[in-house]
Design goal:
The chain is mostly helical and 105 residues long. It has one domain. Helix content is 46%, strand content 0%. It has five helices and no strands. It comes from Triticum aestivum (Wheat). This is S-locus receptor kinase C-terminal domain-containing protein.
Length: 105
């Protein structure tokens, strides 16, 4: 969902996250508020806690007393190498490559 919201924000289509049943009756000001909420939400899911806004800053952003900053690309949106890409790295490099599969408890 984060990756989808980011992609829509990047394409200036973040209002597509809003249910069409709700969107039809919204004023332009309300639609602008929705866009702000999406942007603030993406700020709140930044990888590093130091990049996330504190709640004392979030509230003024949501009440339009402060303009939210531009979020950075979330880690979940970073392209992932495919196994074929990894094999090409191994075949063209003299370095050894270790792949670790992590499993939760």
């Amino acid at each position: 969902m984060i990756a989808h919201a980011w992609n829509l924000l990047e394409e200036n289509r973040s209002l597509e996250l809003l249910d069409q049943a709700v969107c039809g009756g919204c004023s332009p000001a309300e639609l602008e508020h929705v866009t702000t909420c999406i942007q603030v939400g993406l700020l709140c899911v930044q990888e590093s806690p130091s990049q996330r806004p504190q709640m004392a800053v979030v509230i003024p952003m949501l009440s339009h007393q402060q303009v939210p900053g531009r979020p950075l690309r979330p880690v979940v949106c970073t392209p992932v190498r495919t196994p074929a890409d990894l094999l090409n790295v191994v075949n063209t490099s003299s370095n050894e490559l270790t792949i670790t599969n992590l499993e939760g408890r």
